[in-house]
Each structure stands twice: as structure tokens, then as C-alpha cells.
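sry for the spam today, last one i promise. C-alpha cells for design, 559 residues
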């Protein structure tokens, strides 16, 4: 079957049956669509009668948020690679004002809505009565989709035949078909990093509850400080752009106000027009705190609308049970975040990884594990130490530059004493690295050459300040290890028996984690148990082997 990048799934099953059917329907849709799957709900739509079928407004009922949540959680389970978006333009709670005009009163799509990705295929769960009906249904479906949304010319149609369970009467018990209470202005807050099913559920429900305006507080700066792997959080502008795109698709009629949040409250405690705040089970107490502040500020309390957390069926032992952005960030570790610069003039064998990372970030433990998997480990720190041996060229230059008080009694250089002179003093550190870096670089290149002679396929240059030294032209890819500063300080103090202040001074001479990540092709983190690090390294190594093989196929080199 052909694959399409973007599709729109028109669900015609009655709403109460969907929770039991949505998983097989989504997994059949995922056989046809590979990137974005829009979901349009029109329960009871009869596509088998021929002629024109029109969209109508559907009143949102109390059951609907649960259904939306189920839909996104099933999507995460059965088609996690798809960007699923539930569209709500045809849901409306309030009666329409007579002055809005007859068409607007009864037709949710007076003109077709433009989506951020135009559908190339329309799919449906409509049950065919007999196979002969399929061309009538397909035509009707295409016309219906084209009436509602701007689709690609030559829109294809697919009638899905998932294996569906029969819905028994007792499955319908507890259904709540009362209309949902809606509000003029609704507010929500969050980081919204790498929009996932739980974010989308929250945003969809807010869109359902809001009639006029939806205020979204987006965490920035201070509020991100304590987040796990915060260096991998998408930039603020990108998070905003993705939110805007999603919301414009879901319900373009709403006014969206996106506000950077630098404290946990933002406009929720000052905006008099707000009526409702949407929270999760986890953030309910935050919602209650908002209301206390509003009362102090002389404002009315907000209705707290709480949604359940969505479970992540694929969570690992170090991840949270709920779908969370931190788990998604953890899954990025070891993967290729940005493609390396092509280096056509640079020999492909051995493939050279530059492994950089702040002091105490576990770089050497990663390099050692890579060595265990078959890489040649080139330890630049160790090579650097070798350049200090009495009689070497660097030894004399260092003595001239720093004077005899950095010598031990046996005339060898006391590296700790030298370290005290240079860490914390940028000028002095530069004087040292101007002497030793060219010497270390030369020896690293010799080791790579030697590894090549010995038939090595991968070399890892373990060099703390590889990026600061501008050694990227010596490597095919840059991998970096990151660790929160507090943990780095703790490790340095314990390992090198230096004071906390000295450890901090050392770190201040190095690039921040965020800056390292900006220049990294692959990021690794040794914050957790040793087997977690090993799994990360294995993942990075296996993906690297795939890239190397792919490059060989492209260039026609023997593997
Ligand atoms: C481009 C490269 O990365 S080459 C490898 C790094 N070496 C250099 O840059 C040479 C200059 N540095 C040195 O010669 C030594 O670090 C000295 C003499 C200053 C101190 O020596 P020692 O006390 O034995 O410490 P050691 O060499 O183990 O370095 C301690 C930490 O300082 C950090 N460090 C080393 N050099 C630098 C530097 N130029 N700038 C900032 N931090 C540095 C390292 O991250 C290392 O921590 P890590 O092992 O957890 O990564």
C-alpha cells in the first residue's frame, strides 16, 4: 500500500464506542500515514448514502475529554512515530447568535480550513455494508474532507478495515453525555518541550473548554533550572512555534495568548477575565495556590479542571510512569541529534569521534566503554600529562612561563600546583594551552595514524576541552557528556581531593553544558546507574555502526 506523509482520519463511529475501537483504527491508519495524522470526529456520519454529506456542529459532552485522552494514549502505544492531532473546529457548545448568519450557525466550515500540513489521504473507519459500496463511500469521503479542509489535489482515500471488538451494552455504563461546561477564557501553564500525547490531551481539552481565549504560560529561564536534562529542552521560540501550529490546526477560531513564564503563576493570578485553569493530577495543588493568590489580589477564583495523567506504556526503569518530556529527553541520549558536517577530503577510516565534556562528567568512563565495544581510546588528558616530562620541549617552555615554583623536588612538574595557577585565571590558562595543545594535537594525530595502520575502524579522542581547542576538524563527529554542575562538583571533590571552590573554578574555565550541547552531534549523560550508562553507550555505538555502514555504501568503500 502507498504511504502518505499527512492524512486525515474521519471517525464516524458513535463516540461511546470509540474507546474500544480507537487502537486498531489508529494502527491501521499508521500503515498508510507516516508523519502527521489529523483526526476529525463526526459520529454517525453516513458515507454510504451517496450524494453530499455535510459537516455539522457536535456538542461537546462530558465524556469527550476522556475520549481525547484515550485517543492520544492509544496513539502513543500503537503509532508513537505519528504526530496525531485531534481537530475540534466542528465542536461547539454554545448556541450560535442569530446575527452570525444561517451558514455559520449550522456549518462549522463555511470555507475549508487550512491545516499546517495539507492532507494527501483521507481515511475512515466507516463500516462498509458490502464491498460494492466502497467506490460510493470513497467519493463521498473525499468530497466531505475537501469541504472541511484544504487538501492536496488528487486526494486519495482509504477505507480502513480494522478488527473491531463488539461493544457490549455494559461497556456503555457510566457514560456521561451531558454537555460539558465551557468558559470564555481558559489558562494553562507548562514547559511544552517536544509536544507529546499528554501535552496534546491537555491542549485539546483546554480548546474544548474555551470559547473565546486560551492563555498559555510557557516556562522559561528560571523555571527550567531544575529540569532533568534541561540542556536538551527545545529553545523557547521553537516551543512557541510548535504550540501555535498545533493550536491553529486544532481550533483556529480561538484567540491564543502565549506568555513566557518566569515564575510559577504568570498571568493566572492577575488576569481578571480568566475563568478556568486546567491542571493535571500532579499540578492540582499549583492550581489551588493560584486561587489563593487570586483571592489575595481581589480576583475571583478559577474553576479547577483536572485531567488524569497519561501512562507511558514504554517507560523504562529510570523514566517516569506518566508520559513526560524528561523521558523523551532521556531517550535522545546516544542518538544523533544533529548530522555531522560532511568531510569529503577527510579519510573515512578510522572514523573519529571527539568526546568532550566538562570535568567530572564521566567522559573517561564513556570512552572506556566505547573501547570495550571495539573503539581505540585516545586519551588526550594522559597525552597532555606526558608533555610535562622533564626534557620535553613543552617542559622548558612551561618552566619559562610559570617559573620554578611549579616544580616538585625531583624537578618534575607539579601539575596540581600548575592547575592552581591556571584554573580561575583565563590569561594564564591560555598561556599554558598555547604551549601544550599543539603538542598534544600532534601526538593525537600520530595515534590516529597508528590506529589506522593497525586496522582500527573507530577512534575516540577523549579530550575534555576539544571544542574550546577548536579540534573539530580532527574528528568526524562530536559527542559530549553532560552532568548537572552540583553532581560534577561532588565528583571532582571526591575524586581529586580538591575544595568545592577549586572544583567550581575549574568548571568555570570550561564551556557550559548548554554550549557543549549546541555543538554536539550526540549527547550522553552518566547521571544514573552504571547499567543505564552502558545501555546509552551501546545505543550510541550501534547507531554509529549504522551510520558508518551507510556512509560506506554511499561512497562505495568496502566494509
Ligand atoms: C584539547 C584537550 O582537551 S587536551 C586535554 C586537556 N588538557 C589540556 O587542556 C592541557 C592543559 N591542562 C593541563 O595540563 C592539566 O589539566 C593541568 C596541569 C592544568 C592540571 O593537571 P591535573 O591536576 O593532573 O588535572 P587533570 O589534567 O587530570 O585535569 C583535571 C580536570 O581539569 C580539566 N581541564 C584540563 N585542561 C583544561 C583546560 N585547558 N581548560 C579547562 N579545563 C581543563 C579537565 O576537564 C580535567 O577533568 P576531567 O578529567 O574530569 O575531565
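last one done:
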Amino acid at each position: 500500500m502507498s504511504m502518505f506523509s499527512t492524512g486525515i482520519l474521519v471517525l464516524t463511529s458513535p463516540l461511546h464506542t470509540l474507546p474500544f475501537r480507537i487502537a486498531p483504527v489508529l494502527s491501521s491508519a499508521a500503515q498508510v500515514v507516516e508523519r502527521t495524522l489529523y483526526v476529525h470526529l463526526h459520529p454517525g456520519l453516513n458515507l454510504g448514502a451517496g450524494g453530499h454529506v455535510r459537516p455539522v456542529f457536535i456538542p461537546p459532552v462530558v465524556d469527550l475529554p476522556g475520549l481525547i485522552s484515550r485517543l492520544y494514549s492509544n496513539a502513543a502505544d500503537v503509532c508513537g512515530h505519528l504526530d496525531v492531532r485531534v481537530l475540534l473546529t466542528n465542536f461547539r457548545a454554545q448556541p450560535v447568535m442569530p446575527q452570525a448568519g444561517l451558514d455559520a450557525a449550522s456549518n462549522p466550515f463555511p470555507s475549508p480550513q487550512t491545516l499546517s500540513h495539507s492532507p494527501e489521504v483521507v481515511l475512515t473507519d466507516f463500516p462498509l455494508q458490502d464491498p460494492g459500496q466502497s467506490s460510493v463511500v470513497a467519493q463521498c469521503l473525499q468530497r466531505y474532507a475537501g469541504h472541511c479542509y484544504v487538501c492536496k489535489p488528487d486526494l486519495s482515500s482509504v477505507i480502513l478495515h480494522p478488527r473491531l471488538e463488539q461493544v457490549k451494552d455494559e461497556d456503555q455504563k457510566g457514560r456521561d453525555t451531558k454537555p460539558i461546561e465551557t468558559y470564555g477564557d481558559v489558562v494553562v501553564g507548562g514547559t511544552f518541550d517536544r509536544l507529546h500525547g499528554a501535552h496534546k490531551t491537555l491542549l485539546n481539552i483546554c480548546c474544548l473548554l474555551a470559547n473565546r481565549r486560551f492563555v498559555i504560560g510557557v516556562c522559561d529561564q528560571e523555571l527550567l533550572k531544575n529540569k532533568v536534562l534541561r540542556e536538551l529542552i527545545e529553545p523557547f521560540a521553537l516551543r512557541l512555534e510548535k504550540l501555535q501550529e498545533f493550536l491553529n490546526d486544532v481550533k483556529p477560531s480561538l484567540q491564543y495568548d502565549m506568555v513566557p513564564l518566569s515564575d510559577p503563576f504568570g498571568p493566572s493570578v492577575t488576569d481578571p477575565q480568566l475563568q478556568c485553569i486546567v491542571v493535571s493530577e500532579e499540578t492540582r495543588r499549583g492550581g489551588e495556590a493560584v486561587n489563593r493568590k487570586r483571592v489575595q489580589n481581589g480576583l475571583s477564583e478559577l474553576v479547577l479542571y483536572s485531567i488524569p495523567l497519561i501512562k507511558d506504556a514504554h517507560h523504562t526503569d529510570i523514566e517516569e510512569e506518566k508520559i513526560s518530556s524528561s523521558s523523551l529527553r532521556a531517550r535522545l541520549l546516544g542518538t544523533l541529534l544533529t548530522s555531522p558536517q560532511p568531510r569529503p577530503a577527510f579519510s573515512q577510516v578510522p572514523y573519529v569521534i571527539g568526546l568532550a565534556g566538562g570535568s567530572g562528567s564521566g567522559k573517561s568512563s564513556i570512552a572506556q566503554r566505547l573501547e570495550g565495544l571495539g573503539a581505540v581510546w585516545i586519551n588526550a588528558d594522559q597525552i597532555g600529562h606526558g608533555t610535562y616530562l622533564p626534557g620535553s620541549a613543552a617542559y622548558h617552555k612551561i618552566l619559562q612561563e610559570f617559573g620554578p615554583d611549579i616544580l616538585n623536588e625531583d624537578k618534575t612538574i607539579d601539575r596540581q600546583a600548575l592547575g592552581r595557577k591556571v584554573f580561575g585565571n583565563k590569561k594564564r590558562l591560555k598561556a599554558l594551552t598555547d604551549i601544550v595543545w599543539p603538542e598534544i594535537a600532534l601526538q593525537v594525530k600520530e595515534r590516529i595514524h597508528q590506529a589506522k595502520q593497525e586496522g582500527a575502524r573507530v577512534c575516540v579522542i577523549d579530550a575534555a576541552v576539544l571544542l574550546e581547542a577548536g579540534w573539530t576538524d580532527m574528528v568526524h563527529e562530536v559527542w559530549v557528556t553532560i552532568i548537572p554542575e552540583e553532581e560534577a562538583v561532588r565528583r571532582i571533590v571526591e575524586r581529586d581531593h580538591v575544595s568545592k571552590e577549586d572544583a567550581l573554578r575549574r568548571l568555570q574555565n570550561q564551556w557550559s553544558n548548554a554550549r557543549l550541547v549546541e555543538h554536539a552531534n550526540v549527547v550522553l549523560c552518566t547521571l544514573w546507574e552504571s547499567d543505564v550508562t552502558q545501555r546509552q553507550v551501546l545505543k550510541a555505538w550501534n547507531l554509529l555502526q549504522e551510520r558508518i555502514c551507510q556512509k560506506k555504501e554511499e561512497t562505495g568503500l568496502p566494509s
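The radius of gyration is 30 Å. ok im logging off now
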